[in-house]
């Protein structure tokens, strides 16, 4: 009797495990919503502009504020590989001062950046609750800058955008989960969000 019960339990666990794995493999589509820190490319742009302003005598101090970036993404999963696209928005306000001690800026800038990044990712490790992955993205950034000093000037430009994510972690079941990623590029050094698979 005990042997029969043990056999039934082992078979039930095996079937449950196989069903869970099959269910996990069947989740092909994934939608993601995320928030990231101020992205690294904007930091380098600001550094370069501050340096050139100082050398040319235009501004000796620059103050920049940003609330980070928000985005939405879609991925299609093929075994351990996923392909998709991510769309995002980031804004920043920049103030330029002619002297370090000036309280009032001589110029202000409002910057909006939109990005569209085709994305590829690979899962290093995948279980029912945890997934570890890395990925890379390459696409475009559309930037709009409104400058105000004595006159108001607006300009737009399109440039190359990217994101390198050496490590990302998703926690949750095969349908709903949360994730956090460490990387460099338009999505920031750290970004996190929610994931929905079906």
Supply the helix-strand structural class: alpha+beta
* Rg from alpha-carbon coordinates: 24 Å
Continuous helix count: 2
- What is the architecture at the second tier of CATH? Beta Barrel
How much of the polypeptide forms β-strand, as a percent range? over 45%
Task: State the order of secondary-structure elements, H for helix, E for strand.
Answer: HEHEEEEEEE
Mean pLDDT: 81
CATH class: Mainly Beta
Q: What does the largest sheet look like?
A: 8 strands, antiparallel, barrel
The domain count comes to 1
Low-confidence sequence ranges: 7-24
Q: How many extended strands? A: 8
Helix content: 10-25%
How would you concisely characterize the structure shown here?
With 198 residues, this protein is α+β, with helices and mostly antiparallel strands. It contains two helices and eight strands; from the N terminus they run H-E-H-E-E-E-E-E-E-E.
Task: Give the secondary structure arrangement, pairings included.
Blueprint: H1 2-26, E1 29-36, H2 40-56, E2 61-78, E3 81-97, E4 107-126, E5 130-148, E6 152-172, E7 176-185, E8 190-197
Antiparallel strand pairs: 1-2, 1-8, 2-3, 3-4, 4-5, 5-6, 6-7, 7-8
Give a description of the structure:
The structure is a single chain. The protein is an alpha+beta fold and 198 residues long. Helices cover 21% and strands 61% of the residues. It has 2 helices and 8 strands. It has helices spanning 2-26, 40-56, and strands spanning 29-36, 61-78, 81-97, 107-126, 130-148, 152-172, 176-185, 190-197. An 8-stranded antiparallel beta barrel has the order 1-2-3-4-5-6-7-8. It is elongated. The model is unreliable at 7-24 (pLDDT under 50).
């Amino acid at each position: 009797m005990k042997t029969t019960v043990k056999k039934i339990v082992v078979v039930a666990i095996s079937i449950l495990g196989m069903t869970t794995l099959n269910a996990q493999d069947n989740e092909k589509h994934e939608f993601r919503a995320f928030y990231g820190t101020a992205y690294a490319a904007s930091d380098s742009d600001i550094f370069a502009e501050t340096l050139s302003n100082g050398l040319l005598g235009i501004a000796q101090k620059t103050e920049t504020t940003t609330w980070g970036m928000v985005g939405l993404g879609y991925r299609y999963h093929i075994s351990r590989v996923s392909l998709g696209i991510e769309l995002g928005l980031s804004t920043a306000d920049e103030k330029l001062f002619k002297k370090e001690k000036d309280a009032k800026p001589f110029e202000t800038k409002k910057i909006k950046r939109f990005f569209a990044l085709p994305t590829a990712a690979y899962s290093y490790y995948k279980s029912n609750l945890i997934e570890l992955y890395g990925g890379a993205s390459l696409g475009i950034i559309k930037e709009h800058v409104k400058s105000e000093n004595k006159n108001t000037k607006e300009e737009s430009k399109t440039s190359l955008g990217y994101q390198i994510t050496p490590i990302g972690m998703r926690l949750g079941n095969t349908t709903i989960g949360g994730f956090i990623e460490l990387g460099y590029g338009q999505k920031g050094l750290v970004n996190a969000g929610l994931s929905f698979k079906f």
